[in-house]
Amino acid sequence: xxxxxxxxxxxxxxxxxxxxxxxxxxxxxxxxxxxxxxxxxxxxxxxxxxxxxxxxxxxxxxxxxxxxxxxxxxxxxxxxxxxxxxxxxxxxxxxxxxxxxxxxxxxxxxxxxxxxxxxxxxxxxxxxxxxxxxxxxxxxxxxxxxxxxxxxxxxxxxxxxxxxxxxxxxxxxxxxxxxxxx
Length: 182
Hints:
Blueprint (H helix, E strand, L loop, with lengths): L1 H7 L7 H8 L3 H7 L3 H20 L7 H18 L1 H14 L1 H22 L6 H23 L5 H23 L6
């Protein structure tokens, strides 16, 4: 119920009354389990994010590009399904609650770990490690921009973001080999 509320309305527009009405419970019962709406948001986000991580860490088939494409597509589909909640989570989760802010780090850690495991990258150099970590915020911000101003198709966004990953890795590899423009 909370996930649906936060998926259809911005966090700041969901009141305790909205929550208790949607759940058909009293305010007293709400406050028995949660100190405030931020705690419910964190709990609801936890459920949604756990589902997202499960989807992202499934083992897709195909080439490395196709696997990246499938995972980016899963992320974008999740963001579309939970537009308001995703916006709140990625824009100001740590301001809502520390628990919600920690979720972003958990998602990023799970995805980077999954990429490294899937690619057999047990011991990567520092710049490749940075590249892996930097790709996640690129996906997050591009998806948020697209959710609010979809100037390209979903498939174009997916292909572009998957291409960004390999472009970033290629630039890192080029830099590591000493062949850089600097």
